[in-house]
Automatic annotation (TrEMBL):
This is Dihydrodipicolinate synthase family protein. The active site is at residues 138, 166. GO terms for biological process: small molecule metabolic process. InterPro entries: Aldolase_TIM, DapA-like, Schiff_base-form_aldolases_AS. Pyruvate binds at residues 50, 218. Belongs to the DapA family. It holds the Pfam family DHDPS. The keyword Lyase applies. CDD domains: DHDPS-like. Keywords: Lyase, Schiff base. SMART domains: DHDPS (SM01130). One of its GO terms (molecular function) is 4-hydroxy-tetrahydrodipicolinate synthase activity. PROSITE patterns: DHDPS_2 (PS00666). It comes from Streptomyces auratus AGR0001. The lineage of its organism: Bacteria, Bacillati, Actinomycetota, Actinomycetes, Kitasatosporales.
Length: 321
């Protein structure tokens, strides 16, 4: 389907349910897409960090993307992560995603080797020229070890290389600088890049990002409570900032489920992704809560803590005494 310009709203990075053999559980993934659509989301981001894209083989990536696209059935845009270390490898993923019917591509800067901003710019321009799909830059320095400077993003937005930015940098100052350079809160789409979308990847500060002029959010927690993020977005767009803040605060409390996995026993990725997947299983959306190897699974105690957060957020019925 045609990508709206600008891309906007709530676009969750779709979790990838796994079966007992570590393969993509397509039945659970189909139910998850329906769960997200029922929540009112405006798009789907397959093969992102929350999708565990770095753990999936090329064949598993294909299965996950094709399943998400088929389940979406043209109702919302499907963005495909084409994340890999170098331009030739990313280009292979991009061509495959285009063949599988993705509506847009999401790519990081190259990583493993250090790259100069001019090399990063050339990377994005080469991808955009080679595959005729809108391209969204994914700024996640914790994973790729380079920050996309606001000046570089603006340059690539103005020349049409990039259709948008997913900002997971945690650098709110840089994000605000970019939004200001692109026209600020009231002039975002009358500025130098009118169709360019700015999406925050920080599920804890969505109300602030929208107030500053962002177009939407890509929330990992949105897998668990898509309707909550849609309510937040709708309230912000209507100018009901107190209502938006109240919904944001409820989601911040729910997000504490990512601390259920003890830091002394597992990585933060294992804990966060494990909590999202455990929540989806508890909600009856997916069959299992397994994460990809070698991430460690949550204990029964940790899963019980996730359930407690779901009940507190009103997503699971309260326990009877």
């Amino acid at each position: 389907m045609a990508l709206p310009a600008p891309l906007h709203g709530v676009i969750p990075p779709v979790c990838t349910p796994l079966d007992p053999h570590g393969e993509v559980d397509t039945a659970s993934l189909t139910r998850l897409v329906q769960h997200l659509l029922d929540g009112g989301v405006h798009g789907l981001f397959a093969l992102g960090s929350t999708s565990e894209v770095a753990y999936l083989t090329d064949a598993q990536r294909d299965i996950a993307l094709e399943t998400v696209r088929k389940a979406a059935d043209g109702r919302v845009p499907v963005l495909a992560g084409v994340i890999d270390t170098t331009t030739p490898r990313v280009l292979d993923h991009a061509r495959r995603a285009a063949d599988l019917g993705a509506d847009a591509l999401v790519a990081t800067a190259p990583f493993y080797t250090r790259t100069h901003p001019r090399e990063i710019a050339a990377h994005f321009r080469h991808l955009r020229a080679a595959v005729d799909l809108p391209l969204v830059a994914y700024d996640i320095p914790v994973a790729v070890h380079s920050k996309l400077a606001p000046e570089l993003v603006r340059e690539l937005a103005e020349d049409g290389t990039l259709a948008g930015l997913k900002d997971s940098s945690g650098d709110d100052g840089a994000l605000r600088r970019l939004l200001t350079a692109l026209g600020g809160r009231t002039g975002r789409h009358r500025g130098p890049a009118p169709g360019f979308a700015v999406l925050t990847g920080s599920e804890l500060t969505v109300d602030a990002a929208l107030l500053a002029g962002a177009d939407g959010v890509v929330p990992g927690l949105g897998n668990v409570d898509p309707a909550g993020y849609v309510r937040l977005y709708d309230a912000a767009r209507a100018g009901h900032w107190e209502r938006a803040a109240a919904e944001q605060e409820r989601l911040v409390t729910l997000f504490s489920m990512v601390d259920a996995g003890p830091e002394a026993e597992m990585g933060r990725s294992s804990a966060a992704l494990g909590s999202f997947k455990a929540a989806l299983r508890l909600l009856g959306v997916t069959e299992r809560g397994a994460t990809a190897f070698p991430q460690r699974p949550l204990s029964e105690t940790a899963v019980a803590e996730v359930a407690r957060h779901l009940r507190a957020a009103g997503l699971l019925p309260a326990q009877r005494d």
